[in-house]
Amino acid sequence: MLCPRPVVRREVAISTEEYPEHAYHENHAALVEQYRSEADLLAPFVTESSRAVLDHIHAHPGFPGASDPPMLALMALLLKLMKPIRVLQIGTLIGYSAIVIADILRQNGRGALITVDPDHHSHGQAHAFCEEAGLTELITFCTDYSTGEQTKLVMEAAGQMDFVYLDASHAYVPTLEELDLLLQPGGWVADDGILLLHDASTLARDYDPTGEGGVRRAIDDWLEVNPKLAHHLVLERPLWPSPPGVGLFRRRVTSS
């Protein structure tokens, strides 16, 4: 059972009233310049047609909050190396990362993406941008929370994932719940699959809108309770170039 696709909003310029937290501000232009200055990181991985759509997204008021270029380049490299068949993204926003993922799956000649986000406005715009890139046939848009009933039904139908990218609420409690959904025995990540997390650095604790320690605290607390369930690696400054950092997980599989 697949989630029904949201109504596609054909217009590209959506009112900032629909994105109050991403209203255009003076830092937007600086952020766009940063992404464009680091465009060479993605250039070896993403086709020219999809890069043109990514550049189009830069002007959108929902663009702030997109994954940073070093993270996207790492994800692109992993997708090229692994050539996964089943890919899950938690946190679509307006589709910037989804375009990168789906473009590489198309190049790989295999694989499909399920992307989950509860916001109807952003998911509608993500669908429109992915349609502009000619990638919607590879993508299922599930407009629900990661812990929602609709997402549960989609994941039961899809089976375990070869690759998961988590860049969602940045909040401690939801991330802790998502780590359980993904990494507990029988969870959404396959035994030989990879979970990639954005905002895993100590600095990114401050990104939590609830002030409870964010993704990093969720990682630390989950590992304390489940020390033998997963291999993990967290990269942050000075060993990683961007402040949000990156986390990698793979479930530990015991020999029978």
Describe the structure.
This protein is an alpha/beta fold and 256 residues long. The chain has a single domain (24-251), classed as Rossmann fold (3-Layer(aba) Sandwich), CATH 3.40.50. Helices cover 38% and strands 16% of the residues. It contains eight helices and seven strands, in the order H-H-H-E-H-E-H-E-H-E-H-E-H-E-E. It has helices spanning 26-37, 48-57, 69-82, 96-108, 120-132, 149-158, 172-183, 214-225; strands at residues 86-90, 112-116, 139-142, 161-166, 189-198, 230-235, 246-251. It has a seven-stranded mixed sheet, sandwiched between helices. Helix 3 runs parallel beside helix 4 (96-108) and helix 7 (172-183) crosses helix 8. The protein is globular and about 45 Å long. The model is unreliable at 1-25 (pLDDT under 50).
Short description:
The protein has 256 residues and is an alpha/beta fold. It has helices spanning 26-37, 48-57, 69-82, 96-108, 120-132, 149-158, 172-183, 214-225; strands at residues 86-90, 112-116, 139-142, 161-166, 189-198, 230-235, 246-251.
Summarize this structure as a short list of keywords or feature phrases.
256 residues, alpha/beta, Rossmann fold, seven-stranded mixed β-sheet
**What is the CATH topology?**
Rossmann fold
- Cα Rg: 17 Å
H/E topology pattern: HHHEHEHEHEHEHEE
Number of distinct beta strands: 7
Largest sheet: 7 strands, mixed
CATH class: Alpha Beta
Mean pLDDT: 89
Low-confidence stretches: 1-25
Number of domains: 1
Distance between the termini: 33 Å
**Shape label:** globular
CATH architecture: 3-Layer(aba) Sandwich
Q: Return the structural class.
A: alpha/beta
Provide the spatial order of strands within the biggest beta sheet. Answer: 3-2-1-4-5-7-6
The CATH fourth-level homologous superfamily: Vaccinia Virus protein VP39
Strand content: 15-25%
Q: What's the number of helices?
A: 8
Q: Can you give the helix content as a percent range?
A: 25-40%
